[in-house]
Amino acid sequence: MRNNKNDREYRILFTSVGRRVELMQAFREAARREEIDLKIYTADMSDTAPALCFGDVAVRVCRILDEDYIPQLIGICREHRIDLLIPTIDTDLVKLSYARADFEKVGTRVLISAPDKIALCRDKRYTGDFFRKCGLHAPETFDSVERYDRSFPCFIKPKDGSSSINAFRADSMEELREIAKRVPDYIIQPYIEGEEYTVDIFCDLDGNAVFITPRVRVAVRSGEVLQTRIAMDDTIVEECQRIIGAFEPCGPITVQLIREKKSGDDYYIEINPRYGGGAPLSMKAGADSARSVLQMLAGRKTAYQEHAAVDGRMYTRFDQSIYMRADGSRPVEIGCLADVEPLAADKRAVVFDLDDTLYDERDYVRSGFWQVASFLSGMRPEVWGDRQECEDWLWEAFERGEPAIDRLFERCRCQDDALKAKCLQRYREHFPKIALPEAHRQLLVRLRESGRKLGIITDGRVEGQENKIRALGLEELIDEYVVTDALAGRADVRLFRKPCPLAFHVIRERFGIPFEDMIYVGDNVRKDFQAPASLGMTAVWYHNEHGIYSGER
Q1: Is the residue at 283 inside a domain?
Q2: 420 shares its domain with 487
Q3: pLDDT of the residue at 4
Q4: What is the tally of structural domains in the chain?
Q5: Residue 196 and residue 212 in one domain
Q6: Could you tell me if 223 and 254 are in contact, meaning their C-beta atoms sit under 8 angstroms apart?
Q7: Among the three residues 427, 452, 477, which one is the final residue of a domain in this structure?
Q8: Domain check: are 128 and 88 in the same one?
Q9: Which among 65, 286, 373, 480 counts the fewest CB atoms within 10 Å?
Q10: What is the pLDDT, as a whole number, of residue 53?
Q11: pLDDT tens across 14-51, in order?
Q12: Is residue 186 within a helix (H) or strand (E), and if so which, with residue range?
């Protein structure tokens, strides 16, 4: 883990992402707020897992029970230089916990608790014993029908189950015996009537509490919360501090309990040593553990934040459909823009990115440097050199990936901030000397003559992007364009740039064409494809070898 949050890009791999869209969005928002460059990798055995669309890179993996599962994940972490792996389901916790040292050898930290703690969570008989050792109430647990001698109703469920799968209520011994025939390796517990709670707990890497957020499970489906209310109950918080002291979690755990109606006592049911499905709701309420994870990646300490979540907040969740291509959310890769034409054969609209897609952005950079060099060399050539020399200095810094104008001023020992601001303004507002490649112009002509709507969605300052569009002669070749900064008004323009989906919704409304009938072509795998994939557009990655931001898949 690095000590400086701004020194490079951080990479997180989420395993078995399934439907965990809210979790991906929470980490994306946390990265924006922390101004951290975050790249999200999503892994699943299914190409149609919805959350795959909400990462930057989606990877297909084998089944968790396969022998190759851990070696495959380690290979992914090594190849992509993953900083942190975060599991999301119970099934792979044991394997990942025992393999932590193997991941650390390739530079990847696994956000997971110790193997012995994972084991006690996976077997609910041990979980109950653990709660009682913490001085807490827990339902009595029986592992056979013959031994159960308590009252009815009762609950029977797998000892290592999750998501309420094969969990049943039995109202009589006869019913209990019949259910037991269908539930393998079960446990039985007396039914406790009362209000159900989930507690989202997040700890630092040393097991120290950062957030403890109780919330009432108002409505539940298949074990996952549909409606919840934040309930910052001091008794539950104190009880969970006891759990934390004995468990010493690494990262997130969720605890479930029932407050018995008659006695008011809290009966603790289970621990899930991972992010629960409703954990993003606690983050929204103020206990932003995603942000804490990123702060830890950046080498910063995270202290305990008492009552961080806003008490009483109510959240309700809903389902949303995502169109998935036959091969999942991965964009189709092309090396020549003309290859878009056959891919658009059954589409009614084609939307392009601008920079490094319809033209090479290096040409724009060179044009801007020419403007700056002409301005400076014409003013004081003895300081800045002649125009060509000044331009070359700017280009050399750019090629090294450095802020070119800053480096030029350092080289020439000039500390005039007002002059530097004028140079930046000239660069940003100049009318560029750039040209649309003839092959690209012909492609746009053919697509439009075939009856398809053509559009552009581009990030950047409005005046600069519109100057590019005019300089390339694109106004006569396309039907609509959206410069995302124009959508921001007085708000932070970064919130409206890709991967924000708002510009795509604007284009769809202007065209009056469903997303499924549209294709989007871009060059930047980091930001271009998350929104179109989640909306149902066909995504096409133009792998521009000369592109500035056309990074790896």
Answers
A1: yes
A2: no
A3: 39
A4: 4
A5: yes
A6: no
A7: 427
A8: no
A9: 65
A10: 83
A11: 999 999 999 999 999 999 888 899 999 999 999 889 89
A12: strand 186-190
Helix (H) or strand (E) holding 310: none
User: Any residues with CB less than 8 A from the CB of 350 and at least 6 apart, and which?
Assistant: 340, 344, 447, 452, 453, 454, 455, 518, 519, 520, 521
Domain extent, residue 378, equals 365-427
Residues 99 and 126 in one domain: no
Which domain CATH number covers 485? 3.40.50.1000
Q: In this structure, is residue 307 part of a structural domain? A: yes
Where is the domain boundary, 63, 93, 111?
A: 111
pLDDT at residue 154 in the model: 92
CB 300 within 8 A of CB 46: no
Amino acid at site 383: V
CA dist., res. 484 & res. 501, Å (int): 10
**Does residue 520 sit in the same domain as residue 464?**
yes
0.85 exceeded by pTM? no
Is 552 among the domain residues? no
Q: Are 548 and 356 in contact (CB under 8 A)?
A: yes
Q: What residue ranges in 50-173 does DSSP mark as E strands?
A: 57-60, 84-87, 109-110, 154-158, 168-170
Question: Which pLDDT belongs to residue 122?
Answer: 84
The answer to whether the Cα torsion of 77, 80, 82, 86 is positive or negative is negative
Write the single-letter amino acid at 230. Answer: I
Q: What is the pLDDT of residue 160?
A: 77
What's the token pair of residue 305? Answer: 């934040």
Question: Which regions in the chain score pLDDT beneath 50?
Answer: 1-6, 552-553
Per-residue exposure over 331-367, b if at least 16 CB sit within 10 Å of its own CB, e if not: bbebeebeebeeebeebbbbbbbbbbbbbbbbbbbbb
Give the position of tokens 């000590």: 3
- Are 297 and 236 contained in the same domain? yes
